[in-house]
Amino acid sequence: MRNFNENTITDAVLARISDASNPRIKQISEALVRHLHAFVREVRPSQKEWEQGIDFLTRTGHMCDDKRQEFILLSDALGVSMLVDAINHPQPEGATETTVLGPFYVQAAPDKALGEDISGGLEGEPLLVTGSVSSPDGKPLAGATIDVWHSDDDGYYDVQQLEKIGDLAMRARFHADDNGRFHFWSIKPAAYPIPHDGPVGQMLEAQGRHPWRPAHVHFMISAPGHEQLVTHVFVAGDKYLDSDVVFGVKDSLIREFVRRERGTAPDGRHMDAPFYHLNYDFGLKPGGSR
For a Cys-Cys bond, which of 41, 116, 136, 141 suits 112, CB 3.0-4.6 Å? Predict the structure, then answer.
């Protein structure tokens, strides 16, 4: 087969894929070719625009290293990450809804005891986080593993400022008590822009979009016999709730970070200054091997 044109090239490429030995690879490759060719036919790019597209992808790759993944950022900003999440994580009634992992998760989060302050001494408004972990039917999941991480009150994560602060902060790994409950102290997070000094930021500007995410706390929770939960809890009233750049906000994940006056906190600690309190009860979907 030769002498391909606009009307015949797609079938030619599909024919050459037809002998793929792995059925899933064949399915994905065929769908990719069909949709990619249809996209090109729809937008009819000039040769210069095609070269600009290749350059955009090349620069996106060059921005990736062990601390930054620009392609995940691109997936997030185009809503693909949340689409994949929605396809893979339908939740039954009583189970907490999922959202994107985000680029700032660190596997080696420090283990902390319940009630510890994970702020690392960073300045900010004190925040008490309390909650529980259970099955959708309300059965407490004793010993559940709870990973948490969030930004500071300027919108920066620890990994973005390690040279300044010297160590990980505002992240930790806890284990729920016998009643499935947990609590810890930190500082209230702020809204922040995703990294926008690279190709993804240029794309957002060209699309007339802002790079901001509403303030939130990340949670990754697991327990034996249940699927791992990856989610956020967002600050109620944040001005970016309806325009989150990565499309991660769900109504069920919005909570009041309640301002409380100085005095005795719900965990018994005496506070000499006002503080905020977030409470959220998580439900884990049954399944999985952990």
Answer: 116
